[in-house]
Amino acid sequence: xxxIIHLRYNSTDKKFQLSxxxxxxxxxxxxxxxxxxECSASETIGLLLERTKDEIKNKIHHKSKEIGSEVKIExxxxxxxxxxxxxxxxxxxxxxxxxxxxxxQDHSTSRLTIFDQEFGVCVNAxxxxxxxxxxxxxxxxxxxxxxxxxLNIKAPLCKFKWYRSxxxxxxxxxxxxxxxxxxxxxxxxxxxxxxxxxxxxxxxGSPAEVVSEGVVVELTKIPxxxxxxxxxxxxxxxxxQSYRVVSYNALSSLYNREEDFSYCPDEFMVMNYRKQLxxxxxxxxxxxxVCLQEIDLFEYQEFFxxxxxxxxxxxxxYRKGFYLGDGLMxxxxxxxxxxxxxxxxxxxxxxxSKEIFQNLYxxxxxxKKLFKRFSLQSTSLQVFEIKCKDKRILLIxxxxxxHRPDNDDTRLxxxxxxxxxxxxxxxxxxxMNETFKVNIVLCGDFNSxxxxxxxxxxxxxxxxxxxxxxVGDRLLNLQHNMRFVSACGSPKYTVYTPSxxxxxxYVFIEEDTEVEQVVPFLEEEVEKHEGLPNDLYPSxxxxxxxxxxxxx
Length: 552
What we know:
CATH architecture of the largest domain: 4-Layer Sandwich
CATH superfamily of the largest domain: Endonuclease/exonuclease/phosphatase
Radius of gyration: 29 Å
CATH topology of the largest domain: Deoxyribonuclease I, Chain A
Strand order of the largest sheet: 3-2-1-7-6-4-5
Strand content: 35-45%
Number of strands: 33
Shape: globular
Number of domains: 3
Number of helices: 12
């Protein structure tokens, strides 16, 4: 098999990287390792090869000292050059050629020579730099990679193989594909995942593998959790003019960084533990409408969709921005509601494509910095139109706004677009069904405190002058003529971690509906813990659970 060198562009630090799998014997000094060098886009082939000589020379010096030998070698002693095939044969690429100019060329016939060794050249092949699987493996639940990262990797194109072993020496292949359904007979085995990376152009890179930290174990019995006490308020399913809503940020595994949740042991942090609690908690509320945020695409497809449908719910999921690995999920009880329509709008796209936002678009694009920041955000709104058995229609909105402290302005824009869009849908439905009544319920993680501009805008229809939206030299007084209230009020906590404890999640309803019951948040139980999640709480957020009744 031909040996290959890799030339890659790293867009993060804007450097070109050369990687050579070098194996040679120089005056009885053995070298068998990758030689890595890099240069900027403006530098030349000659400079890159000269740095490669330096690296080879340093490796030989280091190895010779390890074996008690003094090998003298200079750069001129190292023969290295790059050739490319022409009609008249192979020609050495001149030293003055810029690296950048090489990247757009076909190098399938190029060759790099070092001493008497010849290498093929591959440009921008994928390279795995980070690969991990969950630290704790529970049977009988499916797993996939926890993280895959590197250069030029297109994760959906990558291929995977799974192995198991009792001793990490002898491995048995047990599966293929991005996920592996752990079986009960895997208990006591280590698992290994091998990834074969591919780029967006279909170029295959060198495989990488990761071995589990521990052996597969069976999931222990779910403990008695505080949500079981909350369930005492929701034993009865509602009927007639009443319906129950749950809104819950479930904490995606994409965001459970160790530095943020170091207080939570791995066995309670992994999704295969937390999702069991999340499901039991949701089902125990006997809700008619469930809006979830931060649901992993994989977990929705492999777990939540089927489990909830088994319990009589119809579910729909959208990836945030239509591209992220987590997203928004809405579920409605089929015995009570009929789903008429559903959609997701991504605000940075909708502002350009939907006529009702044309004026806002014309204003925002005059402030290039604000508009660029707005355009880079994936904030989305999921909308369900559901029909009740009587002549009523519910418009359910589900969203999650940016968590960054410096995005107060874009959160306000998203709130304005949300209310404007839901109201336009409501008016259209009223015009089409004059005998129907239409009500809006807006759920989500708004990342906004009760004294924020977002909260005041939604509930009061306006903001204070100090909160007017600054667009360039202009101040916009965003308003709407609808009236919403926070169905759960302003609880002490809807999120609880050591670094942040406050109310940022809401269920907003129109004033022509009434609240029958808010399921208690049991703050005194929450305060017994350093932070959420843990073995009793599956997310860093608390579920909002409220019973709502139509007014005649």
